[in-house]
Write a sequence for this structure.
């Protein structure tokens, strides 16, 4: 008789096949950990995006506020110029004044700002008095004020 072995093609390495034993408890834990980690990453990403958006908005607000402030400064400078020139019809006397004016400005960037100047208190007829004017500048919905006071 010959030594011929016939191999089983269904189990070429014998009947004991190795394989992965599935444990559904460990699979659920891994899925839960994956979901928690992904949620944490999403939360950190959203918080970072919110910080960036807030910074960009604040930067734009600061820029517009600066434009409004310089508009108010322009009004103060004009008030001082007009008052010193003496041809401003600024009839400051006692609690009344006719020194109120405003102007719209066109900026090089194409935007528009404006200022409005008005008398607050003081008297031009009392020696040693301090005249106080306020200039309010506006740009893109924001307003800034500048107070101008001078004595004589």
């Amino acid at each position: 008789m010959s030594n011929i072995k016939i191999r089983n093609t269904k189990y070429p390495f014998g009947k004991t096949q190795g394989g992965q034993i599935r444990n559904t408890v460990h699979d659920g834990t891994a899925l839960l950990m994956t979901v928690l980690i992904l949620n944490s990453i999403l939360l950190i990403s959203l918080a970072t995006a919110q910080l960036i958006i807030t910074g960009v908005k604040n930067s734009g607000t600061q820029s517009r506020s600066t434009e409004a402030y310089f508009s108010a400064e322009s009004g103060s400078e004009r008030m001082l110029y007009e008052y010193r020139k003496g041809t401003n019809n600024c009839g400051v006397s006692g609690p009344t004044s006719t020194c109120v004016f405003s102007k719209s400005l066109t900026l090089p960037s194409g935007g528009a700002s404006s200022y409005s100047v008005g008398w607050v208190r003081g008297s031009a007829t009392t020696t040693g008095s301090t005249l106080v004017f306020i200039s309010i500048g506006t740009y893109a919905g924001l307003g800034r004020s500048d107070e101008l006071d001078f004595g004589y």
The chain has a mean pLDDT of 76. The two ends are 136 Å apart (CA to CA).
